[in-house]
Amino acid sequence: MAPSAAPPSDAGLVERVRALQPLLREQALRTEQERRVTAEVVSALTDAGVYRMNVPRRYGGYQSRLSTQVEVLGELSAGCGSTGFMALIQAGCSYVAALFPDEAQDEIFTGPDVRVGGTLIPDALAVAVDGGYVVNGTSAFATGCQNADWHLLTARVESAGGPPEVLWTAVPVSDLEILDDWFVSGLAGSGSNSVVARDVFVPAHRVLPVGPLLGGDFPSKANADDPFYRMPVLMLFCAWTAPNALGLARAALAEFTERIHRRGITYTFHERQFEAGVTHLQAAEAALKISCAELLTAEFVARIESAAEHDTPYTQEERAKIRPQSGYTTRLCKEAVDLIASASGASSLHRDVPVQRAVRDLHALSLHSFVNPTTNLELYGRVLAGLDAGTPFL
After folding, report:
1. For the structural domain made of 231-384, what CATH number should be given?
2. Can you give the pLDDT at residue 373?
3. How far apart are CA 13 and CA 6, in angstroms?
4. Alpha-carbon distance 116 to 193, whole Å?
5. CATH 3.90.950.10 fits 13-108, yes or no
6. Using one digit for the tens of pLDDT, what is the confidence trace for 226-251?
7. 322 and 238 in contact (C-beta within 8 Å)?
8. Nearest to 242 by CA among 368, 360, 74, 95
């Protein structure tokens, strides 16, 4: 991990990240072609302080307000959807790393700019041994693994008498094999390759049981009483994901309203698209869908921040509502960008025109199981109908 020139606080962080947008846009096509975020962009994110947002202050981190993080991730995603997605996963995994036992944190946070990735599906198998666990298995969707220092590998411990126990295990990326298998149509530059663990020993202090964590119980003593680290992890992932959709949609709308002054509508009398009434309707509808998505996001982000500040509990309905709010934000943004793309003409199919990439990135994001609109609407509807949500992942 190379040292950075990041400022010691997050004052001005949003502005620093916004200033990176020209670089992100300029690198976006290369990022997609190379199927990973470029070294130049990773270095720029580091120098801006992006990786410090969830690192504990005692290690030089910022512990940035959630609303600040949402702004930062939205600005990154407006420049490059794949970069924004990598940043949100690594922001989330840094937060989770701060819930591990303090001894593990001392090993992970050797500097405030450490990059932590992770996988959330327990495809790897952990077997208890003296002093810890031995982990084996292949885990897909390890976003940003080529640029990460540590990986939070989700593993299961099989039990003959019941369901497996699920663990997060903190592993140096150097202990894992990275497969070159990220060939996808959307978020193609996020570097979400598979990683393979082969007889990797993980000491007991680098293990975080997922079950207790979902109930708010985690082993860190240093962070146990800090309201910042009492926010529910799964709700935070909703907050970290929504700005990826918002940033992509905002950028697509900005590009569209600029392009319509430079092109006509083929086989019509409109020499400039911005003069056509249909264009006015399309731009207005897309803009209002994005505005609705912004309001939804602002509502649940404010609820999470308020609960942390005042130490107020959530009802099951509140918990069940936040996931579909994130999913519906994604749906609205996808609808807005689909509308923009349909109005952008065949010339927008060229790979160097950002709107076609936004369409593919939002399609990919909407397939993510945690923000999939249909899945999340169903679980919220179950609660509204008086049933259990049908999942502990709230």
Report:
1. 1.20.140.10
2. 87
3. 10
4. 15
5. no
6. 999 999 999 999 999 999 999 999 99
7. yes
8. 74
- Adjacent-strand bridge partners of 124: 155
From the list 286, 291, 267, the residue with the least C-alpha distance to 337 is: 286
Judge if pTM exceeds 0.85.
yes
Burial 109-119 (b: 16+ CB within 10 A, else e): bebbbbbbbbb
Q: Quick one: 162 exposed, middle or buried, by C-beta within 10 A (0-12, 13-18, 19+)?
A: exposed
Correct CATH for 116-209 of 3.30.390.30, 2.40.110.10, 3.40.640.10, 2.30.22.10: 2.40.110.10
Distances (CA, A) of 91 to 52, 61, 144, 216, 268: 8, 12, 11, 19, 48
Q: Which residues contact 173 (CB under 8 A, 6 or more apart)?
A: 117, 145, 148, 149, 150, 151, 195
The residue extents of the domains of the chain are 13-108, 116-209, 231-384
Q: Residues 342-376: pLDDT tens digits?
A: 888 777 788 888 899 999 999 999 999 888 889 89
Can you tell me whether residue 313 is helix, strand or coil? coil
As given in the structure block, the two tokens for residue 33 are 């072609």
Give the number of other CB atoms < 10 A from CB of residue 183.
Answer: 8
- Which residue is listed with tokens 């709107």? 355
Report how far residue 212's alpha carbon sits from residue 218's, in angstroms, rounded to the nearest whole number.
7
Beta pairing class for 116-118 and 150-157: parallel
More confident residue, 116 or 353: 116
Residue type, 144: G
**Alpha helices (H) along the chain:** 13-18, 21-34, 39-48, 66-79, 81-97, 102-108, 210-214, 233-259, 277-310, 316-342, 354-367, 373-384
Give the residue, 190 or 6, on which the prediction is more confident: 190
Euclidean distance between CA atoms 338 and 356, whole angstroms: 9
pLDDT at 103 over 70: yes
* Residue 121, both tokens: 């599906």
One-character DSSP codes across 29-58: HHHHHHTS--HHHHHHHHHHTGGGTTS-GG
pLDDT for position 266:
75
